[in-house]
Amino acid sequence: MMYVNKIILVGFVGNDPTVVKGSVKDETIGISTFSMATNETWKIKKTNERASLTEWHKIVIYNPYYNKVVTESVKKGTLVYVEGKLHHRKYTTPAGETHQSPEVHVSFGGKVNILRKKIESDNALEENSDSPTNGLMDDFELEI
């Protein structure tokens, strides 16, 4: 039996990517991380009001090719397609409490594609500034 762990996200980068040095199988590599917002919008039938839900995701990139793409071309506000695996990082707080934090890991077999670079003009986003999708997904509605 085959098992699948695959996450596909399309959304806007929430912060400029950061790069740290890490090691995988005794090899030192650069690891990029950034946050990413996905947004779901719908119209409530009874009130005809629009509602939305924004989810934030931590993206961790181990793939050297995509690390280069991300560090050279991705900035806060860039629309990206991310394909990776769901991973739950475990950590312990100074108080001794154990927690898990979900992350999307992009390694070999994963992808990061730039769909639209950040729009530099503040006026271009003024109309939709409340939405992390900047109006891109406004044509899609789920009526409930």
Structure, explained:
By secondary structure, the chain is mainly beta. The protein has one domain (7-128): OB fold (Dihydrolipoamide Acetyltransferase, E2P). 10% of the residues lie in helices and 51% in strands. It contains 2 helices and 7 strands. It has a 5-stranded mixed beta barrel. Strand 2 and strand 3 (27-44) form a beta hairpin. The longest helix is centred in the middle third of the chain and has 10 residues, at 64-73. The termini are far apart. The relative contact order is 0.24.
Mean pLDDT: 83
Low-pLDDT residue intervals, each spanning 5 or more residues: 121-130, 139-144
Strands ordered across the widest β-sheet: 1-3-4-6-5
The whole-angstrom Rg is 18 Å
Determine the CATH superfamily: Nucleic acid-binding proteins
DSSP summary, beta strand count: 7
**Count of alpha and pi helical runs:** 2
Shape: globular
CATH architectural arrangement: Beta Barrel
Task: Give the class from helix and strand content and strand pairing.
Answer: mainly beta
